[in-house]
Amino acid sequence: MNNNNNANGGAANQDRDRDRDRDHQIPAHLLQHAPRPRSVTFTISVMQLEYLYVTWAAARNRVHQQLYQPDLPFQPYPLPPVWPDETRAMMVLWIARERRIFEMEMEELEYLLGLRGAR
């Protein structure tokens, strides 16, 4: 008894599948690729970018205090600004980009210091 013929889609099974799927084709618009992320540009205003950098500096100070001066009292978190959805999305993308750049810089540092294998 040969059960592999059915499991691997034997010739008889393939012919039946072709007949059955002839009218069930995937529409062409579903097969098109989405634009590559590198071909899409995002803009963020100068004011928003300045706000991000100032807030980033404040975040660094908070982390520095947590690491090196944990006995000092922490300042309470300020209320976050209310952003329109589009601006909020841009900031999320910007932060993700900066995080990835930082990771790439740390990898390069490891290679330059000989802490990772040579390329």
Which key terms come to mind for this protein?
single chain; 119 residues; mainly alpha
Architecture overview:
The chain is an all-alpha fold. The chain is 59% helix and 0% strand. The chain has 5 helices and no strands.
Provide a brief overview of the structure.
With 119 residues, the protein is mainly α. 59% of the residues lie in helices and 0% in strands.
Q: Which term fits the overall shape?
A: extended
How do the helices and strands follow one another from N- to C-terminus? HHHHH
Main sheet overview: none
How far apart the termini lie comes to: 53 Å
Structural class: mainly alpha
The proportion of residues in beta strands is under 5%
| Oligomer category | single chain
Write the layout of secondary structure elements.
Blueprint: H1 4-7, H2 11-21, H3 28-31, H4 46-68, H5 85-112
